[in-house]
Amino acid sequence: MSDSSQLLRRTEKLRALVDPSHAEHRRAETERMASLGTLAAGVAHEINNPLSYVLGSLEVGLRELSDLRELLRGTGPSEELEHISDAVAALDSAREGAERVRHIVRDLMDFSRAGAGSGEAVDIEAILDATIRVAWNEIRHRARLVKRYAGLPLVCGEEARLGQVFLNLIMNAAQAIEGEPADNEIVISTRREEGSAVIEVSDTGSGIREAQLPRVFEPFYTTKPAGSGVGVGLAICRGIVTELGGEISVSSEPRRGTTFRVVLPFAPEDSAARRAVAEPPPEAEPARSRILVVDDEPLLGQTLLYAFKGRHDVSICTSGRDALARLQQDAHFDLVLCDLMMPDVSGAAVYESVQQTHPELIDRFVFMTGGAFTERAREFLEQHRGAQLEKPFNINDVERILRQITASAAPLPAPSR
């Protein structure tokens, strides 16, 4: 913990001792944040379910069209190949957009629960460059971009989540600017400071009034005009940066511009060295397997059925009750993908029944969850030591889990005849 964070906590304790009303205010704020967290978890869960089969269907469509294009290449009419290539490009753009939604929803889930930050070693300047490319269309119509990089070592973080932080800050900077692009600047700079990496995003925009500055990181507080923002972006940014062991702050002056400052710890040298090791070769595809999908979203099961057509045998149950009935008749599955939150019989109840009736399936049981927002579901996941897939996942995630389980689980008994 940094000296400034320790000082802030000590100050809070002293204020609570000398000012009981401050302590009461903090309790009320904690309760409000807990309520917001429950709301965020529920919203994220409802988005994750359809987003799972949207992403999966896009992956299936991309794969099928790409295979068709390769089959026709050199034999089919060039006009047909061009149409197929356009369709592949359109689906790929849709997939990228869905992936962005995926990261946003995961950040919303992180906002709803406390968690440990990642210790991954990442290149922060490469993340900034990738984020700039995403935001470039918004930047170039509003301001000149100035990059001042110091050539920083790797920092502790996570690429996707830090990308979301800086995309939010850069988009906010661009949207705060009015007037001609030639008259305005967005400056993105990096430097070392007391053993940490400092990243600043500055703009020459409208600025923020002094009275508003203390509240800019509060959930659902926004300085934008009505209808232009909901006020969760900066709150999520603060949550991500804090979880990664960093700090975020803001300084601003009306009509002069705003600077957001992010401080992140450098990665230990050993983790940086591990990151530099070459990636292992891709693993071989697992042998044909039987997969049972238990989820009250029928389209998710259909997506997995299409994705594994011709490679694996997929059976679908759309409720926990149906799954229990199916397993009474046939329990010879190499992998069971089970939703956690279902309206009739929950995934936890299915698992507990399977423990009694088919213990050989326990090591092959994987929970799919778009968010555990009931107390019982959260407690169950905390105690569960088996594999989990957080929605929205992609087809590669399922194949990875299948490889791991078929390689490590005990052999299934021969099916009864």
Describe the structure.
The protein has 417 residues and is α/β, with parallel strands linked by helices. The protein contains twelve helices and twelve strands. It has helices at residues 3-18, 20-72, 78-112, 124-140, 159-175, 233-243, 269-276, 298-307, 320-329, 347-357, 375-383, 395-408; strands spanning 120-122, 144-148, 155-157, 185-193, 196-203, 247-253, 257-265, 290-294, 313-317, 335-339, 365-369, 388-390. The strands form three sheets. The protein has a five-stranded mixed beta sheet. A five-stranded parallel beta sheet has the order 9-8-10-11-12. It has a two-stranded antiparallel sheet with strand order 1-3. The radius of gyration is 25 Å and the shape is globular. The protein starts with a helix and ends in a 9-residue tail after the last helix.
Query: What percent strand?
Result: 15-25%
Helix content: 40-55%
Task: List low-confidence stretches.
Answer: 1-8, 14-19, 226-230, 272-280
Question: Structural class of the secondary elements?
Answer: alpha/beta
Mean pLDDT: 79
Strand order of the largest sheet: 2-4-5-7-6
Cα Rg? 25 Å
